[in-house]
């Protein structure tokens, strides 16, 4: 157990204890949720831990190797704590979790049992089940670079280095017409070529779905309107008048990087990489074995 203090050790030594569990969940947007399985609220380190959430946890499994430490948190959904719509929207995905074993009679006597993040989160009826993953979980992810013709970077990330605040590559405006939080229409949308936002992002800036985003599937004109269609609906309510931000899309081709973004120096693909058929090619008296398709 990490952070075992003398007071806590002295408390558990006799075998008769007043212990409970406390959890703190910190989402990526900064929202903090704190719970305890004690029958009364607790507070320490400037955080108040609620006792009326019905939250409980299964036994913690920890190892000394690189396998993932894991446990599960179980709880009931409530309007003023963890809400079902926020789980559906993915707001708790990847949230940081800390779990303590606490002497509820003297909260300063506690030990940090677990620190990690939320993995898979399921909801069934009026309850939820959250898989908690330990700090070693990222060490099990495969690393390395993929050698391929398309660019492997994400537009605007540390490898791409393109500045998405450059004028002409993002547009903020209010929603005029929306169908099923997936198809957005504007009567007038000048200044951008058709398809400019395809493969880009639509971010919701205010309203109940603020902070959520989707990938643009199609960007086209229809019946005199500009239509932005997403691959999947936004998992929250998006009404007319909601502010959204559209970001230009990239199809990962070298020509797009050079002509649309003027960012060829940071292109992370290998456009001259020959295809697999080039490795199996045999000598020919005509044409070139360039790895392209043959007709």
From TrEMBL:
What is the superkingdom listed in this entry's lineage?
Answer: Bacteria
The record's InterPro entries line, in alphabetical order, gives: Phage_phiJL001_Gp84, Phage_phiJL001_Gp84_C
In what residue span(s) does the Bacteriophage phiJL001 Gp84 C-terminal domain sit?
Answer: 195-277
> What's one Pfam family here?
Phage_phiJL001_Gp84_N
| Record's protein name | DUF2163 domain-containing protein
What organism is the protein native to? Sulfitobacter profundi
